[in-house]
């Protein structure tokens, strides 16, 4: 007893001394070196550390474990403090921006109230004057007197040799731009869904009732103003429709700014209209508060200034005062105001395409929002917030995207100065064929010398445009991306890939049946807001006969997909792809083909005012009575859009006619496939953006949702939807559609693999598919055999089954993890099995 009493205080003393350990600087340095290599070392690693470092020999392993725990905790606290400071700076800057926006809106309201009162007074005065004096002569005289009192200002002609005159134009441009950016010169209407926040793109607005089309945006980025100015002035890097920007003259000003005379060419979005160009004066200067301004305005006969370069195949458009205002933020970063205001001369465009040129929303998507997104992308890449796989630098990936878009735009426009020439048609004007055999100009742009045979040849482009009805652009492009086998020909893909080989295998014509193939999409990069994806597609070919072995081989495509967010009003959806080899070098030659779908703004014309172009006359559309009734909803297009298709092919001179015939036939077959897809999509009117409103009035959908919820309650005793039990009809359908967990139904066949028949929005996102293509997916493609056996055995015994957390696969082959899955029998009113329902809880992509 005495011995144990003596030992207990000794142990207590040892334990107490172990709680308070003071490390020497040498010991801390040794531990920090290990921490930098491995922040969470194992028990064996800690023991090894004690053996290898004599200075740590007097420290217990448990004490070292506690040191690493405390070190990780301090690191986490520092990171969290840094994150909160960054968020606080963003919120402070956003609060300042919102207060300024509120002041501007109050001024706009006051201005409108004043104008309203002034107009009322003028109407009363005019009415009284008309009553007292109806003399025509007095009206003319009063008008002449008013004109003498307020003469129309006349701009003196200023030429390039008069810097003072150009400075006057520049100062006028600056004042007009600032009145639009921060004042009330334009009535701005905020775009729905663009909510300000620390991580949002910013505040976006479009013009209302002004000349031309205009868009305005303001946001916050963590880049210095000078860097932002440098990025924004490089317009071809972020404006995908910009072909070139040439600065023809630079004139320094006394205040430290510069005046530039700029000539810019832009691409036409379709084959049905001419491209535009601009001749502008660009003024870069700084304000008294330290803000930087880049403003721009067209030089015309009315504004004065030198005459711009002559144009042949371009239509001269006018840029009204536009530009960028960049203000520094406290603590770093910048507040950016962007204004784009142009007059695109809509009268030179076919009437059916005029909505593309008179829509402020399309201008906002193409220029204003694109500029903000590009700056945010570079800002996050610079700060290390974005990680890319595959060892590619962000700048290289952006270059790939720019090259794909630029080469596709070159194909759509077919400029003569790039070496393109038009071929004669075969009597049907549906597909346009252009040829480029000018190796000097052609190879120097987007492509590579290996694409043009040394013994003579060139590149041809087969293209077509058509007007679609009742087809949401995002849904169509998503379908074309996910189901390539529905429209592509494997033999043509093989021929396109042959241009990458030194001795290409020639396929003079397309095989009507092609070869069976499957695709695997490998993500490469995506933008901050996931509006654009860059990916590599592996096409896996399968040969059934010995003669097909030479063609049935794996091929690779570099693919760019953008605009598949159906909530982005006015956004262009496109799918562009180009064959690449397995090496996929940074300077890999690209010969892109693809699709572009541009929505047309809603129009007041009824279903009877339908217009078609080219092959659109053969396209069936859904019933006109199904149009949404609310014009303010983003998905109410009147569902009209312009589809442009362009495909590149290389050829050898002795096979040119065969390749032309093959290209024309292939593009016609692709157009036919797109029409079939459009017919399948249009009547259903199903898309994730339209939500379950499109199912309103459908007794089948409402009944199925009711059966799903009731069967879940019967089998499990719980509620599937945490809502009022009395909820029914459209409200119940909407709750299930927006449920955060993936809910889906499949057939209950016993002699075949179950086929999916329904999924809510989360289910479609998890499967990476659409409601239209859902029935092509079988349950055995999602769950492995072990999972299916567990569910089937439990369902047969008790009507429902649980599957613990695991991994399943989407339709694109991506791995999806989930915490738990539940399956149950869905029975109808007569207690007869109707289908099986599944819910995947807390799923996410691996």
Descriptive labels:
846 residues, alpha+beta, Arc Repressor Mutant, subunit A, Alpha-D-Glucose-1,6-Bisphosphate, Chain A, domain 4, disordered N terminus
Describe the fold and architecture.
The protein has 4 domains: 24-113, Orthogonal Bundle (Arc Repressor Mutant, subunit A), CATH 1.10.10; 163-383, START domain (Alpha-D-Glucose-1,6-Bisphosphate, Chain A, domain 4); 394-441 and 455-542 and 553-602 and 638-681, Alpha-D-Glucose-1,6-Bisphosphate, Chain A, domain 4; 699-845, Beta-Lactamase. β4 (242-252) and β5 form a beta hairpin. α12 crosses α14 and α15 (699-716) crosses α16. Helices cover 36% and strands 23% of the residues. Strands 1, 2, 3, 4, 5, 6, 7, 8, 9, 10 and 11 form an 11-stranded mixed sheet that branches. It has a 9-stranded antiparallel sheet with strand order 12-13-14-20-19-18-17-16-15. It is built from 18 helices and 26 strands. The chain is α+β, with helices and mostly antiparallel strands and 846 residues long. Belongs to the HD-ZIP homeobox family. Class III subfamily. Residues 159-387 form the START domain. Its main location: nucleus. This is Homeobox-leucine zipper protein HOX32.
């Amino acid at each position: 007893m005495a011995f144990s009493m003596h030992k207990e205080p000794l142990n207590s003393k040892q334990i107490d001394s172990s709680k308070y350990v003071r490390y020497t600087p040498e010991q801390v340095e040794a531990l920090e070196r290990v921490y930098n290599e491995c922040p969470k070392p194992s028990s064996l690693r800690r023991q090894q550390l004690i053996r290898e470092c004599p200075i740590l020999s007097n420290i217990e392993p448990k004490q070292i474990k506690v040191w690493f725990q405390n070190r990780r905790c301090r690191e986490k606290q520092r990171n969290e403090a840094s994150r909160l400071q960054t968020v606080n700076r963003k919120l402070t800057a956003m609060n300042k921006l919102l207060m300024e926006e509120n002041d501007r809106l109050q001024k706009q309201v006051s201005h409108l109230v004043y104008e309203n009162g002034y107009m009322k007074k003028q109407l009363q005065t005019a009415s009284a004057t008309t009553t007292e004096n109806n003399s025509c002569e007095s009206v003319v005289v009063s008008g002449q007197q008013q004109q003498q009192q307020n003469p129309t200002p006349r701009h003196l002609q200023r030429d390039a040799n008069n810097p003072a005159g150009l400075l006057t134009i520049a100062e006028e441009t600056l004042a007009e731009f600032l009145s639009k950016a921060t004042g009330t010169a334009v009535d701005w209407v905020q775009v729905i869904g663009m909510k300000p926040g620390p991580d949002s793109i910013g505040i976006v607005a479009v013009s209302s009732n002004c000349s031309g089309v205009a868009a305005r945006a303001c946001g916050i980025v963590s880049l210095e103003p000078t860097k932002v100015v440098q990025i924004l002035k490089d317009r071809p890097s972020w404006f995908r429709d910009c072909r070139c920007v040439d600065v023809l003259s630079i004139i320094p000003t006394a205040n430290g700014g510069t005046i530039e005379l700029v000539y810019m060419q832009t691409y036409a979005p379709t084959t049905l209209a001419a491209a535009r160009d601009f001749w502008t004066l660009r003024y870069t200067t700084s304000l008294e508060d330290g803000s930087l301004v880049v403003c721009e305005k067209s030089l015309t006969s009315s504004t004065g200034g030198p005459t711009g370069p002559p144009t042949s195949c371009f239509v001269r458009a006018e840029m009204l005062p536009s530009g960028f205002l960049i203000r520094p933020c406290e603590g770093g970063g910048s507040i950016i105001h962007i204004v784009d205001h142009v007059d695109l001369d809509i009268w030179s465009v076919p009437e059916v395409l005029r909505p593309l040129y008179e829509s402020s929303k399309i201008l906002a998507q193409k220029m204003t929002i694109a500029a903000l997104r590009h700056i945010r992308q570079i800002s996050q890449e610079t700060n290390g917030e974005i990680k890319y796989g595959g060892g590619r630098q962000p700048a290289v990936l952006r270059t790939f995207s720019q090259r794909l878009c630029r080469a596709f735009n070159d194909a759509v426009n077919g400029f003569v100065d790039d070496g393109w020439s038009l071929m004669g048609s075969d009597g049907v004007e549906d597909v346009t064929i252009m040829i480029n055999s000018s190796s000097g100009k052609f190879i120097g742009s987007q492509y590579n010398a290996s694409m043009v045979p040394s013994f003579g040849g060139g590149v041809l482009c087969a293209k077509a445009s058509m007007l679609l009805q009742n087809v949401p652009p995002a849904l169509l492009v998503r379908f074309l991306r996910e189901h390539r086998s529905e429209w592509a020909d494997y033999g043509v893909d093989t021929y396109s890939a042959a241009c990458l080989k030194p001795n290409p295998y020639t396929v003079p014509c397309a095989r009507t049946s092609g070869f069976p193939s499957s695709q695997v999409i490998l993500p490469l990069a995506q933008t901050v807001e996931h509006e654009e994806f860059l990916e590599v597609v592996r096409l896996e070919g399968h040969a059934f006969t010995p003669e097909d072995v030479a063609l049935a081989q794996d091929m690779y495509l570099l693919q760019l997909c953008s605009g598949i967010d159906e909530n982005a009003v006015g956004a262009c959806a496109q799918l562009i792809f180009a064959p690449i080899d397995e090496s996929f070098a940074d300077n890999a030659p690209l010969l892109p083909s693809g699709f572009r779908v541009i929505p047309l703004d809603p129009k007041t014309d009824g279903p009877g005012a339908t217009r078609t172009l080219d092959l659109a006359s053969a396209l069936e559309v859904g019933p006109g009575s199904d149009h949404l009734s609310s014009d303010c909803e983003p998905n109410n297009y009147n569902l009209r859009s312009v589809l442009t298709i362009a495909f590149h092919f290389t050829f050898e001179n002795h096979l040119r006619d065969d390749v032309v015939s093959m290209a024309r036939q292939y593009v016609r077959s692709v157009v036919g496939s797109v029409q079939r897809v459009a017919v399948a999509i249009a009547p259903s009117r199903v898309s994730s953006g339209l939500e379950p409103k499109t199912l309103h009035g459908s007794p089948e959908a409402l009944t199925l949702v009711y059966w799903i919820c009731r069967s879940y309650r019967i089998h499990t005793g719980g509620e599937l939807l945490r809502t009022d039990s009395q909820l029914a009809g459209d409200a119940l359908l909407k709750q299930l559609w927006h449920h955060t967990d993936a809910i889906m139904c499949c057939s209950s066949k016993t002699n075949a693999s179950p086929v999916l028949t329904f999924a809510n929005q989360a289910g479609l996102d998890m499967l990476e598919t659409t409601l239209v293509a859902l029935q092509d997916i079988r349950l055995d493609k999602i769950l492995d055999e072990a999972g299916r056996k567990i569910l089937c055995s439990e369902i047969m015994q008790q009507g429902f089954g649980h599957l613990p957390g695991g991994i399943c696969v989407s339709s694109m082959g991506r791995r999806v993890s989930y915490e738990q899955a539940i399956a149950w029998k869905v029975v109808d009113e007569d207690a007869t099995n109707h289908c099986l329902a599944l819910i995947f809880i807390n799923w996410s992509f691996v």
